[in-house]
Design brief:
single chain; alpha/beta; FAD/NAD(P)-binding domain; Cholesterol Oxidase, domain 2; seven-stranded mixed beta sheet; 26 strands; binds flavin-adenine dinucleotide; binds 2-acetamido-2-deoxy-beta-D-glucopyranose
């Protein structure tokens, strides 16, 4: 290369490596087949091209590589570079990291709730709270899946990345509280979905080290798979299949960290396919950017229509999360979700404790709590002893590590849904997403019932050592109303009710799904309806969030579909 090119390339290279969170000493990759996309040839060809090496994409790719040549294109980096960054102590920090190389890309839905989507190999499993719990048999049956194969696939995942949680003091108190207030029966440590209280699985091992969907690539056949990192797919390419008389996907265009475009094509064989596993935000977004979506919306963005499909981006749903922060007079362990109460009215109660917040969070909390306590003290609503515990609360909540925890609820479903629309033609930009939390009154009823259960748990004997006794639950709830939970309108506490609490303090539990729903955008084999050689397999195909928390089923689905696709590939004629 010419001297002038070197002059520009070298500083750019160094800058780019720093930008992407790599350093020269950390370049020994976990897998021989994992490389930065800057080293990819300009043109590649494979049997399967998987867009998104996330929670579903990794198990899918590992499985397909057992019988075909597989390419994974992941826009994020490696989760193996700095394992500490993603361990249990750094849950909040990692999620609130807003540098360009962060594994979490934040977005705010039109509902005014701060949310995040993954940008890393392993996807959401690198950011999440780790709880692992299977879907109910009913969910599996209603999805039309083979129950035997689903069970085998869950086990395949569990063997590699699932652990029994330690269940220390805080988690045990919540579990016992749930039992005491009647979320029964108690089902012990159990990965299955059943009413009552149970201890679920977790992807954190006993040292708090996170295991992720990227670890499922250990199952891959190294000679038949390539995983490129920092490879952002910009477009799926289509030509016209004259025999089938419809568009057929034949390749993709992706951009590396230097801004250089590459093309990946399918090897010419009728069974080869492109599989979109970019998650519930990324998959509908990329379908639209590639010309599959509502024609009028695509026209607005100057995108050439390949297939007018008004249902792309519809059915977006996010299970609302509502929480109560409970400061504790005694120290608590660091824990993310380990136990769950699966109520009969459709609310799931979970808990976390000892979370570490960065200093900016602590400072913000400090200000709010000071403000609230000043007001409370002035109005003298509480007896003197309560004032002391409020002062304690301020102290305990503003430490970088929270002395206390949260009890939270997620509602089943949900029934309320919204939609996704493009804002720009850049796949790195967030689209506009609307979830319409609590639009359906049934969702609100579940939330209120769940809140009542949380209040009962806080008041239970089992939980009593973690509670300031002179501080009524009402005071905790008043605190919550002053926290900047979201940017939704707040209502005066005069109008306060549990309904209003649910609506005003809603957060996300990050279980959003939909946008490419099964039976609407994809058929029951996850093939995109109306085109050839393209599937979508990930959380965007769901109608409801599976199980109490979805990752078990998302990973299972990757394995499950990999098996099904390979079977079909090798057993011709068989249905
Ligand atoms: C903070 C948080 C906490 C959670 N807690 C839990 C929990 O405790 N238990 C649980 O079960 N679930 C939990 N979840 C939910 C769970 O992690 C997700 O439902 C799941 O990871 C979604 O998987 P997916 O494969 O559909 O998408 P993802 O895992 O997001 O995978 C999509 C991948 O595609 C990549 N991608 C997107 N667009 C492109 C493009 N154009 N080109 C190339 N690559 C692209 C992304 O970088 C990403 O890696 C949590 C999620 C979060 C964020
Ligand atoms: C379901 O999956 C099992 C395990 O892979 C398989 O043996 C069985 O034939 C499948 N059943 C159907 C109806 O496809
Ligand atoms: C709370 O009251 C103290 C003492 O009156 C005052 O110094 C402080 O600024 C107040 N804080 C807030 C946030 O209102």
């Amino acid at each position: 290369m010419g001297w002038w090119l070197k002059q520009f390339t070298l500083p750019f290279l160094a800058w780019s490596l720093i930008f992407n969170g790599l350093s020269y000493s950390e370049q020994v990759p976990k897998y021989t087949f994992m490389k930065d996309a800057t080293s990819a040839p300009p043109i590649l060809s494979y049997d399967y091209i998987i867009i998104g090496g996330g929670t579903c994409g990794c198990p899918l790719a590992a499985t397909l590589s057992q019988g075909a040549r597989v390419l994974v294109l992941e826009r994020g980096g490696s989760p193996y570079i700095n394992p500490e960054k993603i361990d249990i102590n750094n849950f909040v920090n990692s999620l609130s990291d807003i540098t360009p190389s962060s594994f979490a890309q934040q977005f705010i839905s039109r509902d005014g709730v701060l949310n995040a989507r993954a940008r890393v190999l392993g996807g959401g499993s690198v950011l999440n709270a780790g709880f692992y719990s299977r879907a109910s048999s009913k969910y599996i049956r209603e999805s039309g899946w083979n129950e035997t194969l689903a069970k085998e696939s869950y086990k395949w995942v569990e063997k590699k990345v699932v652990f029994e949680p330690p269940m220390m003091q805080w988690q045990s108190a919540v579990r016992n509280g749930l039992i005491e207030v009647g979320v029964l029966p108690y089902n012990g440590f159990n990965l299955d979905h059943m009413h009552g209280t149970k201890v679920g699985g977790t992807i954190f091992d006993k040292n708090g080290k996170r295991h992720t969907a990227a670890d499922l690539l250990e199952y891959a056949e190294p000679r038949r798979i390539s995983v490129y990192l920092h490879a952002t797919v910009h477009k799926i390419l289509f030509n016209y299949n004259t025999e089938k008389r419809r568009p057929q996907a034949y390749g993709v265009i992706f951009k590396d960290a230097f801004g250089i475009m590459h093309r990946a094509y399918l090897n010419k064989k009728s069974k080869n396919e492109i599989i979109l596993s970019a998650g519930a935000i990324g998959s509908p977004q990329l379908l639209m950017l590639s010309g599959i979506g509502p024609a009028s919306h695509l026209h607005v963005h100057g995108i050439k229509v390949v297939l007018d499909q008004p249902l792309v981006g519809q059915g977006m749903a996010d299970n609302p999360m509502n929480v109560v922060v409970v400061p504790s007079p005694i120290p608590v362990e660091v824990s993310l979700v380990q136990t769950v109460g699966i109520t009969r009215f459709g609310s799931f109660i979970e808990a976390a404790s000892g979370l570490s917040f960065g200093h900016s969070w602590s400072e913000r909390l400090q200000g709010i709590f000071e403000f609230v306590s000043n007001q409370t003290l002035q109005h003298s609503m509480f007896p003197t002893k309560t004032k002391e515990s409020i002062a304690d609360t301020i102290g305990s909540l503003t430490n970088p590590t929270l002395k206390g925890g949260v009890i939270l609820e997620k509602i089943m479903g949900p029934r309320s849904t919204g939609h996704l629309e493009l804002l720009t033609n850049n796949p790195n930009d967030n689209p506009s997403v609307t979830f319409n939390y609590f639009k359906d009154p049934a969702d609100l009823r579940m939330c209120v019932e769940g809140m009542k259960t949380i209040i009962d748990v806080i008041n239970s004997n089992a939980f009593s050592k973690f509670r300031y006794h002179n501080m009524p639950v009402q005071a905790l709830i008043d605190f919550m109303l002053h926290l900047p939970m979201n940017s939704r309108p707040k209502h005066s506490s005069a109008a306060y009710s549990l309904e209003q609490y649910c609506i005003d303090t809603v957060l996300t539990i990050w279980h959003y799904h939909g946008g490419c729903q099964s039976g609407k955008v994809v058929d029951h084999n996850f093939k995109v309806i109306g085109v050839e050689a393209l599937r979508v397999i990930d959380g965007s195909t769901f109608y409801r969030s599976p199980g109490t928390n979805p990752q078990a089923t998302v990973m299972m689905l990757g394995r499950y579909m990999g098996e099904k696709i390979l079977k079909k590939r090798f057993f011709h004629g068989k249905k």
